[in-house]
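Practice problem: predict the structure.
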Amino acid sequence: QVQLSEFGGGLVQAGDSLRLSCAASGRSFSDYTMGWFRQAPGKERESVAAIDWSGRSTVYRESVEGRFTISRDNAKNTIYLQMNNLRPEDTAVYYCAAPSTPVAGPNDVIGNMYLEFWGQGTLVTVSS
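Answer:
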């Protein structure tokens, strides 16, 4: 059974940093693009960042560009989201996701295309 599990959420103050992890089990995603998404209270889910299988190609939503960094360790079947200079508007449940096909690239994943596998989410709360 395929499972994505997120870790690392918590309560921080504005300007602080957090590092989220998403560990995959049940199959390897080493040749798949993967992504991070978030859903704030009362809002729709939105894409945050995506990374291709090699880690060399990444895309970010504009509001996190320069503050967040997505990375991956294929040997550990894990992706990460380093979040720096957090803002109250970053408060959300953060999810990792993987597409159904290895042909999906970062622009596909950040565009919510082909997404099939989702984690249960981890809550990030940023106080002002």
